[in-house]
Design goal:
The chain is mainly β and 243 residues long. The protein contains 1 helix and 8 strands, in the order αββββββββ. A hairpin with a 3-residue loop joins strand 6 and strand 7.
Amino acid sequence: MERAEDLLKTRIKMRIYILFITMLLPFTVFAQEDVEYRMDIGAGVGATTYYGDFNASPTKNIQPAGAIVFRDILNPHMAIRLSAMYTKVKGSYEPSKTYYPNVNTYTFNNSLADLSATYEYNFWPYGTGKDYRGAKRLTPFISIGIGATFANIKADEAMKIEKKNIFTANVPIGIGVKYRYKDRYNFSLDWQMHFSLSDELDGIKDPYGISSKGLFKNTDCYSTLTLAFTYSFFERCRTCHKE
């Protein structure tokens, strides 16, 4: 009789334990989920290369660059990035290599600022894997957008170039990779080609003396390689239909 009573008590205790664990399980799972964030902000360093009438090599006259980066994270696959970059464009011309009828030996080193807004698409959902099911800490991405370029052109007495400022639009297109370190820290490395609408970033327009027509015909371009570190913030609402 006592053995039967002990067995009954043991079963009752086991059921209480199971019920208690079952009640705690949703809270445990919820606590293990990482928070999703709507934005991140940070800074980056990189390199810029000018492409135009006085340079066609991707490894020549590379200049250092600094940038501020902000992202509005739409979802784990998409984001809008705003970036402000300061750099320089540098190049030179020697008649022995290429002939321009109205240009003597010429060297330039102009300051350049770039402000751009780009749409980024991640090939894999980006995150820790706990904030969004199936998310990856490492993902490649592509980007395209629109930007504004401000160039400060230095004077050159030999070429009769006066000091002036050039303001034009550009279209940045690029590829890159992102890496989520812990919950809020992000690293990104991306390369972009900026197709500007101006042929005067180097200070000289149409060195052949023949005017060009067309949106991007015979215009100057520059590429940027940027390594950025950003910090995520602005927690996404958990109860807003899992947006």
